[in-house]
């Protein structure tokens, strides 16, 4: 199902949780969401996509077709986001949101199309680079959904692992110290094993480990998944700082669509591996069809 069964509080009133938050009076199946989402899809032009970018595109996809094995999941995706901007991908389960992140970072097969970055000033197609090359040479880092820390290692050792591509171990240790300077909460736990951290602290460690290589682009997959509300707010405050203070470009998939669109400058709705709607985050929040299908009312 695209929405969970009603929790106990809602069960008493006959209401069910909405798709990724909120409350609605009916439960919508995945097939229904896909069918209704296709019905509201618009023709998104290249001019519209580029019009949402501040300045020149820093990360751009051109007619990207990608998938797993021989199965194509993305059917000609165009995407553009500027330096220091954020873009949030929402859509039904199976729409291909995480596959976009996987394709950019090299976790799945790119059949055709381009992945262009402007790191270093000149635009470069990085589609054929390995994940390690994308991190080290193109400045693209991937922050996994959940549970990617090494539980038996200390916080400090986890950060050192973030610099595994650096030429010297001393470089990784120096980068880890910069992270500790930025996040005292981690510094206080530097000798603790990661498995004893709270959910919010583990997510902070996952984000921080990606920062060790000082990337320009952060691919963030479901940052709020499995977290209590107070930790969700903390994670989005960290991401806000990384975007607006450090100038990171953020491309995010977020199951809490309302939270993701409130955060992001740009929002895309994906349906069945294709771009259905593109606009500013606040425009998608105000779109009644998007609200009905993805924002819980």
Question: What features would you highlight for this structure?
Answer:
12 strands; Rossmann fold; 4-stranded antiparallel beta sheet; globular; 297 residues
Give a short summary of the structure:
The protein is α/β, with parallel strands linked by helices. Helix content is 37%, strand content 24%.
Walk me through what this model shows.
- With 297 residues, this protein is α/β, with parallel strands linked by helices.
- The protein has a single domain (8-149, 197-294), classed as P-loop containing nucleotide triphosphate hydrolases (Rossmann fold), CATH 3.40.50.300.
- The chain is built from 13 helices and twelve strands.
- It has helices at 8-11, 30-40, 46-51, 97-105, 131-136, 155-162, 169-182, 184-187, 199-211, 229-244, 257-263, 281-286, 288-294; strands spanning 16-17, 23-24, 57-68, 71-82, 86-90, 109-117, 124-125, 140-143, 217-221, 249-253, 266-271, 274-280.
- The strands form three sheets. A six-stranded mixed β-sheet has the order 8-9-10-5-11-12, with helices on both faces. It has a four-stranded antiparallel β-sheet with strand order 4-3-6-7.
- α9 runs parallel beside α10 (229-244).
- The two termini are 17 Å apart.
CATH architecture: 3-Layer(aba) Sandwich
Secondary structure category = alpha/beta
Provide the number of structural domains. Answer: 1
Number of helices: 13
Question: What's the CATH class, please?
Answer: Alpha Beta
What about the largest sheet? Answer: 6 strands, mixed
Low-confidence stretches: 1-25
Shape field:
globular
Distance between the first and last residues' Cα:
17 Å
- CATH-assigned homologous superfamily: P-loop containing nucleotide triphosphate hydrolases
Q: How is the CATH topology named? A: Rossmann fold
Radius of gyration: 19 Å
Number of strands: 12
- In which order are the strands of the major sheet placed? 8-9-10-5-11-12
N-to-C order of helices and strands = HEEHHEEEHEEHEHHHHEHEHEEHH
Query: What level of helicity do the residues show?
Result: 25-40%
Mean pLDDT value: 89
- Note the beta-strand portion: 15-25%
């Amino acid at each position: 199902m695209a929405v969970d069964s009603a929790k106990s509080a809602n069960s008493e009133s006959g209401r069910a949780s909405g798709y990724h938050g909120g409350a609605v009076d009916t439960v919508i199946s995945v097939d229904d969401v896909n069918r209704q989402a296709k019905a509201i899809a618009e023709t998104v032009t290249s001019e519209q996509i580029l019009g949402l970018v501040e300045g020149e595109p820093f990360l751009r996809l051109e007619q990207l077709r990608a998938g797993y094995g021989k199965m194509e999941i993305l059917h000609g995706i165009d995407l553009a986001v500027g330096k220091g901007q954020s873009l949030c991908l929402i859509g039904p389960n199976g729409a291909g949101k995480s596959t976009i992140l996987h394709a950019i970072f090299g976790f799945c097969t790119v059949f055709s199309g381009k992945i262009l970055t402007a790191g270093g000033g000149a635009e470069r197609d990085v589609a054929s680079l390995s994940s390690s090359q994308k991190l080290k040479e193109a400045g693209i880092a991937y922050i996994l959904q959940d549970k990617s820390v090494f539980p038996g290692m200390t916080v400090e050792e986890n950060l050192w692992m973030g610099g595994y591509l650096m030429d010297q171990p001393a470089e990784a240790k120096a980068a880890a110290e910069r992270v500790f300077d930025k996040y005292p909460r981690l510094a206080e736990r530097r000798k603790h094993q990661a498995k004893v951290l709270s959910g919010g602290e583990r997510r902070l460690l996952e984000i921080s480990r990606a920062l060790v290589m000082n990337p320009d682009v952060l691919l963030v997959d479901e940052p709020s998944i499995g977290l209590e509300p107070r930790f969700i707010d903390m994670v989005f405050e960290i991401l806000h700082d990384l975007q607006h203070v450090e100038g990171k470009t953020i491309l995010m998939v977020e199951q809490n669509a309302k939270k993701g669109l409130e955060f992001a400058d740009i929002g895309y709705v994906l349906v069945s591996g294709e771009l259905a709607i593109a606009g500013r985050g606040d425009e998608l929040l105000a779109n009644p069809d998007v609200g009905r299908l993805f924002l819980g009312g």
